[in-house]
Amino acid sequence: MSNMEESSEEKASASPPMQTAKAGPAPVAADLENQTAPVHEHGFGVAAIVNKWNRDDKLRRGSLALRGIALFFSLISFLVMACNKHGGWEDFDNYDEYQYVLAIAILSTLYTGAQVGRQVQELRTGKEILSPKMVVLVNFIGDQIMAYLLISAASSAVPLTNRMRQGSDNVFTDSSSSAISMAFLAFFALASAALVSGYKLSTHSYI
To answer: Where does the sequence pass through the membrane (predicted)?
Structure first.
């Protein structure tokens, strides 16, 4: 009997190590739980990239709309001033200020027309005509220069028109005022486009 009791006691003493061996897989489960963290981080990175693409697309479409508005007003300013010829002193090409307005309106029409055509082509085909670095630089510099020329031409013609209106307010002065107003509106559109171009220039890491 003593031998049987000793063997039972040995079995009872051997049972705790077997229980601790079963508890071994617990750290593995913990490791599996820890592996989910990079998945969440990766998902956050994808969401950030998608948000950046959406923001860039909105900026691209916004700049296209602003340049389209500038193209419209520049074209109207050009046509109104070019048709402002009524004989005698009521002829725009007798005044340097009005010739300046006409010349800048033509340049603005050509510039904004080229920009709108390029952007529409890129949106339609999904392919960029110029390199991204070149596009950002051309947009920023071109918008800045053309906006300055528009405000310069319109501002130079305002005093002349005001002096004419003091003596005679007729269709010639009204047409001149309309052309100048269109030039101012084109300036505001291009100035806003220049702000968008400046923001894109400052946020692109490859510049």
So the answer is: 64-82, 98-114, 135-158, 178-199
Nearest to 132 by CA among 57, 48, 207: 207
Q: What is the pLDDT of residue 201?
A: 75
Residue in 129, 142, 134, 130 with CA at minimum distance from that of residue 63? 142
Q: Which amino acid is at 23?
A: A
Give the closest residue to 86 by CA, choosing from 176, 178, 157.
176
Give pLDDT tens digits for 26-54: 544 444 444 444 444 444 566 655 555 55
Which parts of the chain fold into alpha helices (H)?
Answer: 2-22, 26-34, 36-82, 96-125, 132-167, 171-203
CA atoms of 84 and 123, how far apart (whole Å): 38
- Write the CA distances from 176 to 74, 75, 100, 117, 196, integer angstroms: 14, 14, 12, 29, 31
Rounded Cα distance between 6 and 12, Å, is 10
